[in-house]
């Protein structure tokens, strides 16, 4: 279990650095790893998918935040 978790963290961190990890990837990977483990010992697959989903959600949230700030400045 510990070995699989360490391998999944190392793999997620090797996917990219900087913004990709900061923008929801680590949080999503952690949640995905736990969900994957509970769903049938698929922690690595869960971490990969969780990273992608977390990054996507953070990107969408940043886009919406930018739109709200831009709309507030024009009024």
Q: How would you describe the shape? A: elongated
Number of strands: 0
Number of helices: 3
- Average pLDDT across residues? 80
Largest sheet properties = none
What is the CA-CA span between the terminal residues? 54 Å
Helix and strand sequence: HHH
The protein's oligomeric status is single chain
Strand content: under 5%
Helix content: over 70%
Structural class: mainly alpha
Q: Poorly predicted ranges (pLDDT <50, ≥5 residues)? A: none
Radius of gyration: 15 Å
Question: Key features?
Answer:
75 residues, mainly alpha, 3 helices
Secondary-structure blueprint:
Blueprint: H1 2-15, H2 19-38, H3 43-74
Helix pairs in contact: 1-2, 1-3, 2-3
Characterization of the model:
It contains 3 helices and no strands. α1 runs antiparallel to α2. The N and C termini lie far apart (54 Å). It has 75 residues and is mostly helical. The protein is 88% helix and 0% strand. The chain is elongated and about 55 Å long. The model has no long low-confidence stretch (mean pLDDT 80).
Question: What is the gist of this entry?
Answer:
By secondary structure, this protein is mostly helical. The chain has helices spanning 2-15, 19-38, 43-74. The chain has three helices and no strands.
